[in-house]
Amino acid sequence: MTSKKAEATNAEENHKGEAPDDYVIRLHHDVASVDAPGWDALLAASLRPTPFLSHAYLDALHASGSATEDAGWAPHFLTLERTGKLVAACPLYLKAHSYGEYVFDWAWADAYERHGLAYYPKLLAAVPFTPVPGSRLLARDAPARRALLAAIESIARDNDLSSAHLLFVDEADLEAAGTQGWLIRSTVQFHWRNRTPLPYRDFDEFLAGLQRDKRKKILQDRRHVADAGIEFSALTGADITQPDWDFFYECYGATYRAHHSTPYLTRRFFALMSERMPEHWLLFIATRGGRRIASSLVALDPRHRRAFGRYWGALEWVPCLHFEACYYQPLAWCIEHGYEAFEGGAQGEHKMARGLMPVQTWSAHWLSHPVFSDAVARFLEREGQGVQAYVDELAERSPFKSEPGR
């Protein structure tokens, strides 16, 4: 991909004079060519940093063969420089499909096709396979963020692309996109928040705050697992050995096989995680009679005391094992270690019964075709009203005895 105004080189594309204040715009086909300390400094200063947008994480996705052009994720990391210094950046992909995004636009693509128009390729600013809300437009200040967004539009126009999309953005990104006329879309996830101002002392105190029927159901779930003779161990950082990672990957692959699908992430990706970002991973392993039968992997943000449910798998079926591995064990660990939040990932209204509450997440969309843009805008207005009503209705079904103090 290149701009009509760009001069392409082997490593990157340079866009000069396309943004105000003398920014130099570059497209990098490999994040390894982007200054890692500069990228991570922008991330650290962002409104909502997550480990998933770190230079090491993104580089591992590509170096491992997980997110590549052959898989439909053609990388074009976008950077803005001023006087030789990195002032804004974002992960940008040319997408040949909509898999691995978790903000679903298949209906939009179908509408384009029915009218004889090409929806793909499209431009996407997101973290592959990772529906975790956070900063996407890394910028030193608001003008740089606006310039970054304008550059994305310019690239899409110069290459006659149907659209550009920002997924799971933070409030600063959302405001910038809305101000510049992008269409805003809302979805719902389910997150757990520790009690404030006095965090839960232990899992039992958390259970005590739930309504009786919800507390009873969780205790029943846990009893099923205990009666089956299942025991759990929790490993973090360097304590996760390569055989542990091998076992996890076997379980991870089993989940995809059960759905007749193929894992997005390669074993090499997790090897790179264990080498480069070990402090960001928590692995639960379930055993019965000394035999490992299941595992779940949780990502950690130790600095901000947040945890993110990511992957799980089992080699045999045990009633309620999924709930124990993916919710109860992680929540108990978060409470024990003073974590403030556990994000349960995309979708899943059943998570409310486990103490995870509905949270709206946001994306922003720019469509080049004015007629389709108007049609999608009307659709999003109706959809947004429905999402808000859904969130309001869920809030009335809170599993907690009372909300004050949470």
From TrEMBL:
Domain of life: Bacteria
Pfam families in the record: FemAB_like
InterPro entries given in the database record: Acyl_CoA_acyltransferase, FemAB-like
Protein name: GNAT family N-acetyltransferase
Organism: Caldimonas mangrovi
